[in-house]
Amino acid sequence: MHRMQIAALAATAALVVATSSLKAQDAGALDPFLRPDGPRCVPLDAITKAAKVATLTPEQFQFVRALYVAIPPVSHELPPGDHAILAVDGNNAMAALVGDDQSCARLQLTDYAVRMLFQVGEGENGKAPGVDN
Questions:
Q1: 92-101: buried (b, 16+ CB within 10 Å) or exposed (e) per residue?
Q2: How many CB atoms sit inside 10 A of residue 17's CB?
Q3: Per-residue pLDDT, 73
Q4: Contacting residues for 77 by C-beta, under 8 A, at least 6 apart
């Protein structure tokens, strides 16, 4: 079932990638979860009511953790959560780190970040084809 959820969300995210350039100032239904003045932690249930959500693979979880730490404002602490989700609403995508059925670390994803997230999920490593390292 997990792979089917990811595949269905991949199709939705592909639509996001193909049809939009995500803008940080307009996150649609995901906006309440991304606003700097919003709540620090949000129940997972609230996110699933606002958007299509899929649980990400362990590799994608680590990728999202790295993005969260690196993207401004840069975090100086390991972000909370033991798994990650991808939430998609229309032309907007958000990754959230989740633990204890809540997310205290969320970030809006650009179209290229969504593409990379799915590449990680497919096991790609960024190595050029035909190159042995």
A1: bbbbbbbeee
A2: 21
A3: 73
A4: none
In angstroms, rounded to a whole number, what is the distance separating the alpha carbons of residues 34 and 99? Answer: 17
Distance CA 118, CA 124 (A): 9
Cα 97 to Cα 106: distance, rounded to the nearest angstrom: 6
- Determine the 3-state secondary structure of 67 from DSSP: helix
β-strands 83-89, 102-108: how paired? Answer: unpaired
The C-alpha atoms of residue 44 and residue 75 are separated, in whole angstroms, by: 21
- DSSP class per residue in 83-109: EEEEEEETTEEEEEEEETTEEEEEEE-
Cα separation, 89 vs 106, whole angstroms: 15
Residue 15: which pLDDT band, with cuts at 50, 70 and 90?
very low
Token representation of residue 99: 């633990």
Q: Is 87 within 8 Å of 52 (Cβ atoms)? A: yes
Distance CA 115, CA 95 (A): 13
Q: Would you say the pTM of this structure is higher than 0.90?
A: no
Helix (H/G/I), strand (E/B), else coil: 75: coil
